[in-house]
Amino acid sequence: MISVERRDQVAILKLSRDVTNALNLELVTKLSEALQKVKRDPEVRGIVLTGANDKIFSLGFDIPWLYEADQEKVGRFFRFFNQTCLDLYTIPKPTIAAITGHAIAGGTILALCCDYRHIAEGRKLMGLNEIKLGVPVPYLPDCIARQLLGVNKAREVLETGDFHPAEDLLRMGMVDRVLPLQSVLPNSIERANQLGSMPLAFALIKQNRVETVEAQVRERGEEKTRAFLECWFSPDTRERLREAIKKF
User: Fold this and answer.
1) What pTM was computed for the model?
2) What values do phi and psi take at 161, rounded to 5?
3) DSSP characters for 133-180?
4) What confidence tens digit (pLDDT) does each residue in 4-60 have?
5) Which run of H or of E encompasses 10?
6) Burial of 119 (C-beta count, 10 Å sphere; 0-12/13-18/19+)
7) How many angstroms separate the first and last alpha carbons of the chain?
8) Taking a C-beta distance cutoff of 8 angstroms, is the pair 202, 94 a contact?
């Protein structure tokens, strides 16, 4: 479900669960394990997160799987996903999301947790559509979006649930570069190598950027998780999820 390659001192983590890379407990576990391994590896100075195909970076949560799960299992998955995202967000090495396909909901969350986002030109969409399913965007990406985009643009992204094409994402500040498809991965590797060549300075600068959001999440994350789970199992959301499964 996760393939790991090395290009010089950059580790390339590829999501490879079918075409959709839908996030279930197994895929998130494999991602977490890969992140911990490259974090500890002194030979790895940069990380690129990408998908194994050019259609979908990740479609987000595996909704059919989660819909059938009980509260204990959903809660365990959601807490583990949140922790994995926090690990990705705070890892003291440069992380680049090489987005060659659609990044939807949880896929967008993974991209936001990286330091930089490079997306392929053309009709490659990103967005946080959680509100259309009757749940809030998880607390960590909510905080990241507000810090990254500013209050007004973040409000539009979080409260409409719309999907946005590459050029709009660049104007909004959700991605850093729009590139030809074949250039996304090479440019992401090059950027990770460049930033990773200054490991100590980069790690300290990154810590200054992420520590405020990290502190917020550690302080209020469990409270926000309980609120999310309450929404997830509400009658309105269950009905919205049933409709979403028909399109999954």
Assistant:
1) 0.97
2) 70, 20
3) GTSPPPHHHHHHHHHHH-HHHHHHHHHH---B-HHHHHHHTS-SEEE-
4) 999 999 999 999 999 999 999 999 999 999 999 999 999 999 999 999 999 999 999
5) strand 10-15
6) buried
7) 19
8) yes
